[in-house]
Amino acid sequence: MIPEIGHYALMLALGVALIQGTMPIVGARSNDPLLMSMAVPAALAQFVFVAISFLALAECYVTSDFSVFNVYENSNTTMPLIYRLTSVWGNHEGSMMLWVSILVFFGALVALFGTNLPAALKANALGVQAWIAAAFELFILTTSNPFLRIPNAPLEGQDLNPILQDPGLAFHPPMLYLGYVGFSITFSFAIAALLEGRIDAAWARWVRPWVLAAWMCLTLGIAGGSYWSYYELGWGGFWFWDPVENASLMPWLAGTALLHSAVVMEKREALKVWTVLLAILAFSLSLMGTFLVRSGVLTSVHAFATDPSRGIFILAILIVFIGGALSLFAWRAPLLKQGGLFAPISREGALVFNNLFLVTACATVLIGTLYPLALEALTKEKISVGPPFFDATFGPLFIPLMIAMPFGPLLGWKRGDLVGAAQRLLAAALLGAVALAAVFAATRGGPVLAPFGVGIAVFVMAGAVTDVVERTMVLRLPPRAALARAIGLPRSIWGTAFAHFGIGVSLLGIVSVTAWGSEHLAEVKQGGSLNIAQYQVTFGGILNRNGSNYQDLIGHFTVRRGGELIGTMEPSRRTFPDRGMATTEAALMSRGVSQLYLSIGDPNKDGSLPVRLYFKPYVLLIWLGALLMFFGGALSLSDRRLRVGAPRPAKARTAKPALQPAE
Amino acid sequence: MKLFHALSLFFVLLVSSHAFAVEPDEMLSNPALEARARAISKQLRCMVCQNESIDESQAPLARDLRVLVRQRIMAGDSDTQIIDFLVSRYGEFILLKPPLSWNTLALWGAPPALLILGILMIVVVERRRAAGRPAAEAAHLSAAEEARLAEILHTDTAA
């Protein structure tokens, strides 16, 4: 009964989506308030129906209802509750359900909290949102129905893929989808603006919190996925330039560009057309990511052709939405009036520079990801585009961006003073140069480019600090006055500083672990030791341990530093009898922000154990930086000028300019 | 989306009971030669995997290729000779870094071309906008005057 309720609720949601996608838009065109006002209850009803559907599926998983084919395929009674729950989205059908659930959740948020939106904009935006929801609901109902029953229910289900039986699955896909789908809101607002043929700075103010929220979730989702693969796959890589990773990186790059261009639009009414285009692109890339992952086209063009129903459907969604949006853009964009002139050297100019490089980097990733597919389809020739290509092209595009980043916030709007900004960045640049020289001297004979990477990272971090130091005048004013200024600074300024600082932190981690990480591969006998960095790792013996649905073969290791015992590490080989599969569970030991990383293979007949031991210097900085970016985003989001539903009242803007802190 | 990565790995695991990529028993005893072998392995794709180098991959094919690379090194081949040999045997698909050719011209040319195109677009838009500005307004105040005006207005309101 429960699965049928879920199935039926999803159909109802589709019906509501069709109403929500037509009536309010018709209302906005004919200026009919009644039709327009239908958008809000429809969006809420849509959310309720999809939520019922999603909860019904979750209920099937929790109660292990194996009469449902999807549950039978991906769950098992021996799995702990948490993994039975996360396996809801650990498969194709369920992950699409999660996608739609998040989509309508965002729609409901707009309906609930967008009370101060102009009626027509809100009606159009929710209408567009409904079209996306309808497309994906139709996709689930026709090609990926998770509620399909099996006539004779089996007693036990198959298992969730062991690699997915990990807390990472609870966190990573939902975060990523929150990011992907969050951009649907900006997309809907962009289309709504194009439908109306009107756009202004207020539009940017309404849209910016959504961009920020989506960007924050995507940042955390990507970082979480990176950490997951780092510890799960057993050799400690944190980024592989895998097409699937690229699929999440592209919307992030476009979203980061959008975040910055929306600032220009909000403050200066400039870059309107460009911002609308970016809003369309960010979500288009999210859709494309979904397509790439879900259609199987990445494995091979041929794999796609053998089971095309799902792939073709998503491809159709892709063409209709991206093609439609871009056509609408080409048709209506000339109507949008440009405003806000600025000199090339200005805050706006710096943000244009940011956009130029981010979008080029994004296009590079896109081309690198799709090129082999296109080439194979056109010429039958197969080539590989792997990490060396991306390292060679993406890196050079990011370096100018990093160097320019500290200048941006120090330049004034409309016309900036580059020399002045450079003078204020002198201390930061000196710090970077000192770091470069020190690292160069300390690691002679090591990788040549790495010290420059460290120098740039330090410059970026010091530059972010410089911005705050300058604004609070902490070096020139007495502490009390500086503190007052620090408290008075808009939180978005603090947000910028934290996020930019975080980029520097991540860069530092990436550079040091890539350049100075060390690796030790060996076969050790019981009592044997390995030395890495200043650590001595001794193999104590093998233990066996049983988990709920797996068996662990554990290598017990003790770690010493300078003869002193500092801890034990227990990497394991985890066997899942239900699927006859094994995973590698690496052991990690954090030393400050560096880590020792140990993974083992199957023991040899002579009792020795193959061991992979890594020292990863400063590796945790990579994800710490991402957390800082997230925190910066959160600070910015809490800025009252940006808070959802609280735009700055017009009165305060004109009457009390003295209260607006200098920016 | 490590999910997909995990899934691809899952297929790899099905055909392999080996735990790791490079295994200790494959390694050459001479560290310098081994380092060369590792560097070469990182540039070669494991052809049955999703975007993995043979250095990372756990598939049996990758293992065979790693052993082959080491055999060629021991036989005294240079790095380029080894890579050429593998390309002649498996095609350019094996190279993770596609060599520059007519087929990959668009690939390698795209990033710089796009950057230049972007700069040109910005310049053109900027020019057109400057030209399209109402002549009267432009004649009215020079840039310096405008700045001065803004400054006066600013000090006025802040006071």
What's the rounded overall pLDDT mean of chain A? 87
Uncertain stretches of 5 or more adjacent residues of chain A: 644-663
CATH architecture of the largest domain in chain B: Orthogonal Bundle
| Helix coverage percent of chain B | 55-70%
Q: Could you tell me how far the N terminus lies from the C terminus of chain A, measured between alpha carbons in angstroms?
A: 60 Å
Helix amount of chain A = 55-70%
CATH topology of the largest domain in chain B: Helicase, Ruva Protein, domain 3
Mean pLDDT of chain B: 75
Helix and strand content put the structural class of chain B at mainly alpha
Please tally the helical runs of chain B, counting DSSP H or I stretches of 4 or more residues: 7
Question: What ranges of chain B have pLDDT less than 50 throughout 5 or more consecutive residues?
Answer: 1-19, 135-139
CATH class of the largest domain in chain B: Mainly Alpha
Number of E-state strands of chain A: 10
Main sheet characteristics of chain B: none
How many E-type strands of chain B? Answer: 0
Q: Determine the oligomeric state from the structure.
A: heterodimer
Shape of chain A: globular
SS-derived structural category of chain A: alpha+beta
N→C terminal distance of chain B: 55 Å
- Write down the Rg of chain A: 27 Å
Molecular structure report:
The complex is a heterodimer of chains A (663) and B (159). With 663 residues, chain A is α+β, with helices and mostly antiparallel strands. Chain A folds into three domains: 1-165, Four Helix Bundle (Hemerythrin (Met), subunit A) (Up-down Bundle), CATH 1.20.120; 193-410, no CATH class; 518-616. Chain A is built from 22 helices and ten strands. Chain A has helices at 2-30, 33-37, 39-62, 69-74, 81-86, 92-113, 119-143, 167-196, 201-232, 243-268, 272-295, 301-306, 308-332, 347-379, 387-404, 418-424, 426-442, 450-472, 479-488, 491-516, 620-638, 650-655, and strands at residues 518-524, 529-532, 535-546, 551-561, 564-569, 572-576, 581-585, 587-591, 594-600, 609-616. In chain A, the strands form two sheets. In chain A, strands 2, 3, 4, 5, 6 and 7 form a six-stranded antiparallel β-sheet that branches. In chain A, strands 1-10-9-8 form a four-stranded antiparallel β-sheet. In chain A, β4 (551-561) and β5 form a beta hairpin. In chain A, α7 (119-143) packs antiparallel against α13 (308-332) and α20 runs antiparallel to α21. The model of chain A is unreliable at 644-663 (pLDDT under 50). With 159 residues, chain B is mainly alpha-helical. Chain B has two domains: 2-94, Helicase, Ruva Protein, domain 3; 105-158, no CATH class. Chain B is built from seven helices and no strands. Chain B starts with a helix and ends with a helix. At the A-B interface, α8, α9, α10, α14 and α15 of A face α1, α5 and α7 of B.
